[in-house]
Known about the structure:
- The chain has 16 helices and 3 strands.
- The protein is mainly α.
- 42% of the residues are buried.
- It has a 3-stranded antiparallel β-sheet, with helices on one face.
- The protein is globular and about 60 Å long.
- Helix 5 (76-100) packs across helix 6 and helix 13 runs antiparallel to helix 14 (328-352).
Amino acid sequence: MIDQVNDNKFELLKGDKVLWSVILLISFFSVFPVYSASSNLEYIVNNGTTTSHLIKHLFFVVLGLAIMRGVGVFKYEHIGKLSAILLGIMVVLLGLTMFTGQKIDGASASRWLKIPGTPISFQPSSFAYLMLIIYLCRYLTKRIKRDRLPIENIFYIFGPVLLVFGLVAKDNGSTALMILIVSLAVMLIGQLSKKYIFGFIGVAGVAIAIFMFLALKTDLIGSNRVHTWMSRIETFTNSKKTTEVEDESLKAKNYQVMQAKAAIVHGGITGMGPGKSALKQMLPQSASDFIFAIIVEEYGFFGALFLIALYLIMIIRIVMIASKMPAFFGSLLVLSLGIMIFVQLSVNIAVAVNLIPVTGQPLPLISYGGTSMLVTYIQLGIILNVSSRIQVYDEEGMGKKQSIEEINDIA
């Protein structure tokens, strides 16, 4: 009876308990920097109040946790089987977004699609990215033991990746580049033949070159953000050069990075304290893209180190789950989703400390916003789903010695 009570008690947190603990800690912590930094939206952007933004963030945290737990109700294999259909739906929505999507204030980027009859908007690119990676894991698993015809790889692997890249790149270059990088990583882990890996790199390079040429030299790709990307790269390159005379135009272009670096320096070792950031009002996107700088300013080096440690524990647990999963599809899926989270995390922090040019990637589970946060919770929900199945496979005799043919039958 006692064992049954204990089983029911922990059933709510289905899957890896350490990963659950880390997710809950980061989710709880996110409330404080978002509440503090959202004052920028109230007083500078004149958008809502800190209380309304806090309530909205709490809503997405609770909704995300509920969705993450809800994902555990379904077998992850079924999610894989539905990935092709869901990817097709997302591709259609990406096409609609290009023509009817809502634009970012002050920019020529259509990223959001409004749900008819509601005030709710979301970014189809984030969901398309997720569905694409799940689809690749599924396809590579089902074909792992036989040679593929070149036309198969072109149509079923290269085609979907380049299609999603093309639809996303016009308005969200950083996400499009991440799609190519993570897709390549999935192909490597998924044991795709090296000749096709090099072929994909070549095709992707040509696709990028063609896209850049059409965007810069023709009017075929209207309202693109290629000039913005080039300006950011140029600004980043120039910021690394030491000149005796400061260029005022360069300072203006580099304003975000300068304010982020100032916030990090201002935080020092112990930080200014929760809610006491002095630069959150001057740092654009302080509640989203540059929230890591605000965290360092308010919680200091030790606070940032603690947060990074939580993220490292998350990544380590993800790798451990993948290594313990006997089914190749489950293992590949967990590693691929972990790479997605790691790349996004690394890009956000690298931008804040001026290691790479400015991009619009949020900090996982922390940055203010809806779509990206929910997608991250879905990713983690799938990973927890896989982790909960490890013991089931062991009980069913599906251990490490099982053949690849038997393992792949479940995918």
